[in-house]
């Protein structure tokens, strides 16, 4: 159900503008993240992931309760895209049929090869994704998300980025994932990693059942920045004392919000931007071989389909 500020914005005509949709998506994601963090019990990170901060030993600052860290998920915390891995899991569980593969694969190829986000094609992709989970219960997708994490995601976490997140936790700060992936899946990953919670794309549900609609838009680009801003306001955070981590130039709006931006496994545009602004940069990819991580090489047709078809609430073109 929609509540509070997100519900009011959903009912207003302003939702039709791109800016309003970004604000709505951000506020809805922040609200969902705070509710999840307040109600759930999070596990601790496993031993053996001590932070390697090197010359940056004084950061993060211990005891600074007005600071927090925001981590992009795909190719920053985890190798590849969560939506692909989730798609493989849903395909395996027959959430969509083989006859849908051609359409979904074509949509994914269009976004990755055309080099632009055409609104009409993106809407088609979102509608396809939402139709898959329409009528399913939120609790069902959360339960499946737990299984899919164990099957496809757990072994793909970057140890270096996980150590950075742990450094913030050890300093007494909250750590949030910020991702275009469905918020329910993002919350599963955050809990498994011992993080505070997650900001993700919010799909509308009524009575615990997905309606097939989004709240706002996918949490991508400017919408991520709006989500971080909304959460910072709700949590009384000082963004100039916060940190953000991402691999993608699409997240420059989010990175630019905080006083401590990090480029992690950056794409070429973000690498250039980070160097120009003297942002911190870390690359955990062996031999830079993962410069264009997206569809895992061994994932096969299930991953291609999953990239678009498995989204609870979104399509995201990383590059």
UniProtKB/TrEMBL annotation:
Region Disordered, annotated ranges: 36-59
GO molecular function annotations of the record: hydrolase activity
Transmembrane portions of the chain: 293-314
PANTHER family named in the record: PHOSPHOSERINE PHOSPHATASE, PHOSPHOSERINE PHOSPHATASE SERB1
Origin organism lineage: Bacteria, Bacillati, Actinomycetota, Actinomycetes, Kitasatosporales
Name recorded for this polypeptide: HAD-IB family hydrolase
Family: Belongs to the HAD-like hydrolase superfamily. SerB family.
InterPro entries assigned to the protein according to its UniProt record, in alphabetical order: HAD-like_SerB, HAD-like_sf, HAD_hydro_SerB1, HAD_sf
């Amino acid at each position: 159900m929609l509540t509070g500020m997100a519900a009011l914005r959903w009912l207003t005509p302003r939702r039709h503008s791109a800016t309003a949709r970004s604000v709505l998506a951000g506020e809805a994601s922040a609200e969902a993240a705070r509710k999840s963090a307040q109600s759930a019990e999070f596990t601790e990170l496993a031993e053996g992931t001590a932070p390697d901060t090197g010359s940056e030993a004084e950061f993060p600052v211990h005891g600074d309760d007005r600071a927090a860290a925001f981590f992009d998920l795909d190719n920053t915390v985890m190798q590849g895209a969560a939506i692909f891995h989730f798609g493989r899991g849903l395909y395996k569980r027959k959430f969509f049929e083989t006859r849908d593969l051609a359409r979904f694969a074509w949509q994914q190829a269009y976004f990755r090869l055309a080099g632009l986000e055409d609104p009409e094609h993106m809407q088609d992709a979102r509608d396809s994704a939402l139709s898959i989970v329409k009528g399913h219960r939120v609790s069902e997708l959360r339960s499946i998300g737990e299984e899919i994490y164990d099957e496809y995601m757990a072994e793909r976490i970057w140890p270096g980025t996980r150590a950075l997140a742990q450094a913030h936790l050890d300093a007494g700060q909250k750590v949030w994932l910020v991702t275009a992936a469905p918020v329910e899946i993002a919350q599963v990953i955050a809990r498994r990693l011992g993080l505070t919670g997650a900001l993700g794309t919010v799909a509308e549900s009524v009575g615990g059942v997905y309606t097939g609609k989004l709240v706002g838009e996918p949490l991508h680009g400017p919408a991520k920045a709006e989500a971080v801003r909304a959460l910072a306001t709700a949590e009384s955070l000082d963004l100039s004392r916060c940190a953000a981590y991402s691999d993608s130039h699409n997240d420059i709006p989010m990175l630019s919000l905080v006083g401590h931006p990090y480029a992690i496994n950056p794409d070429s545009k973000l690498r250039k931007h980070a160097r120009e602004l003297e942002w911190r940069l870390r690359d955990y990819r062996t031999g830079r071989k993962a410069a264009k991580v997206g569809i895992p090489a061994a994932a096969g047709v299930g991953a291609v389909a999953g990239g678009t078809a498995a989204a609870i609430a979104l399509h995201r073109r990383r590059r």
